[in-house]
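Q: Structure for this?
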Amino acid sequence: MLISTKGRYALRVLIDMAEHNGTGYIKLMDIAQRQEISEKYLESIVKELVRNNIVTGLRGKGGGYRLSKEPDDIIVGDVLRLMEGGLAPVVCLENSGKTCPRVAECRTLEFWRGLDDVIRQYIDRYTVADLMRTEENGNDYII
Amino acid sequence: MLISTKGRYALRVLIDMAEHNGTGYIKLMDIAQRQEISEKYLESIVKELVRNNIVTGLRGKGGGYRLSKEPDDIIVGDVLRLMEGGLAPVVCLENSGKTCPRVAECRTLEFWRGLDDVIRQYIDRYTVADLMRTEENGNDYII
DNA sequence: TATCAACATACCATTATAATAGGAAATAGG
DNA sequence: CCTATTTCCTATTATAATGGTATGTTGATA
């Protein structure tokens, strides 16, 4: 399993917010109930989204969260990289500043780079608005 | 980082075996030294490759390992799925027999399926023979 | 000013990762 | 047949990540 609950839940929260993107702020408790995810756990996820200005929070009565941008301006790849702390398929491609000592003789790096490209291209093609629309397709197959 | 050392090391071992695919069997100690990986750790990886008939072992003096098939018959995707225990991007796509209760209302499943496809298509396009050839390209860039 | 909800911090149980250690079994060369 | 060699097999372990839970503080507003 390549993507953890953090990335998956974050997307679900953003879609939920986009769908209830009406007047004011949305309480996290409401999202938690609709999505059937622990509110406390969602807090730690939303905190990350707030810090990166994908979502805006307002405390106090009538407070809650709302999207900081339009759904079609939120790129899925950005959200996933943020929540997962990068999505490089191998350590060698995490730009940690240090070069792998075996890079000259490495026979697999090229392959990993290609995989990284393929993943990046796919996840950066989708926005939160795109995910909302998948509903229409009626994806009620058995997994 | 999506792929662990098990998957990465397994590929390096297979490439190493393919490159030294001469007369007889190759000692794991030799591979370990060339690849600068602990021999004991490699054992646990190669054991998995033996069990799945990708590699054949022979014990005793003059023993070692060799590929069970030709390098271009070993698909990288098969090796990775084996070593990583599946490569589904999310739990929902691991065919564990049970259906997600939220499948009907899930807005992200379609997206994850697409990601799974893209990854699968890429890694199943490569064989160990392909990886050997990347040497010629001279991939001496800085990461 | 009471209430509500975000924000902050700390803690915790379980699992995965990346090994290491020690010995048993088999094979081939002498 | 014996012995060195090398795979094979079964633990054990340290560290980190995952997936939470608990408690309390701050700030907005009705």
